[in-house]
Amino acid sequence: FVPGGPIEQILAELHDGGSATDRISGGGGDVASGGGDSQYQGARGLPPEFIEDLEKQFGFDKPPAERFFLMLKNYLMFDFGESYFRSISVLDLILEKMPVSISLGLWSTLLAYLISIPLGIRKAVKDGSRFDTWTSGVIIFAYAIPGFLFAILLLVLFAGGSYWQIFPLRGLTSSNFEELSVLGKIADYFWHITLPVIASTLAAFATL
């Protein structure tokens, strides 16, 4: 009923020798082989009782309409369930990552407006000039490049992909962040956000 959903992910992990069984049974023991037809890919050879337990865990034992309204109710109560891969609340996961997203979003928006407003004024004053022509070409080129593709290019060039190891590949701060001085912490923070902010600013800048 839901191709690629959580049940089929667990079944695929079972066939790959993963630890999905522990997540369902609480650890220990193998799932006994069985037969029977199933609507899920990868369910062949697994007992129907195991599939029923999976459906009950993820709510697929209820009618679609009931599941839909139950989902809306949970969303209104900010209950997004648990992450299948992290085994923690989705809301906690969002709150954990929110400072990073807010930080990158604020800096990207600030830089985009600091560049776009003066550039727009200059282009209006120099309408039809060589400056207006080549900046328009640059903007069109930047608008045509997806932000994620430009981000990958920056990683390959400047984050140890194939050329230079100038910027870190991941993280918002270094592992020794707490040991740094105040100026060191500021420099470390900006060192980590440089590439993602550039990639985000390019995408926002081209549309302003």
Overall tally of domains? 2
Contiguous low-pLDDT stretches (5 residues minimum) are 19-36
How is the main sheet built?
A: none
Number of strands: 0
Our Rg estimate from Cα atoms comes to 25 Å
Task: Provide the structure class.
Answer: mainly alpha
Helical element count? Answer: 8
Summarize model confidence as the mean pLDDT.
78
Relative helix content: 55-70%
Distance between the termini: 43 Å
Order of helices and strands: HHHHHHHH
Binned strand content? under 5%
Task: Using the alpha-carbon principal axes, give the shape.
Answer: elongated
What's this model, at a glance?
The protein has 208 residues and is mainly alpha-helical. The chain has helices spanning 6-15, 20-25, 48-57, 64-76, 90-125, 130-144, 147-158, 182-207.
Primary descriptors:
single chain; 208 residues; mainly alpha; 2 domains; 8 helices; elongated; cell membrane; MetI-like_sf; membrane
Describe the structure.
Helix 5 crosses helix 8, helix 6 packs across helix 8 and helix 7 (147-158) crosses helix 8 (182-207). The protein folds into 2 domains: 6-79, no CATH class; 91-207, no CATH class. The longest helix has 36 residues, at 90-125. The chain starts with 5 loop residues before the first helix and ends with a helix. It is mainly α and 208 residues long. The radius of gyration is 25 Å and the shape is elongated. The protein has helices at residues 6-15, 20-25, 48-57, 64-76, 90-125, 130-144, 147-158, 182-207. Keywords: Cell membrane, Membrane, Transmembrane, Transmembrane helix, Transport. It is found in: Cell membrane. It is a multi-pass membrane protein. One of its GO terms (biological process) is microcin transport.
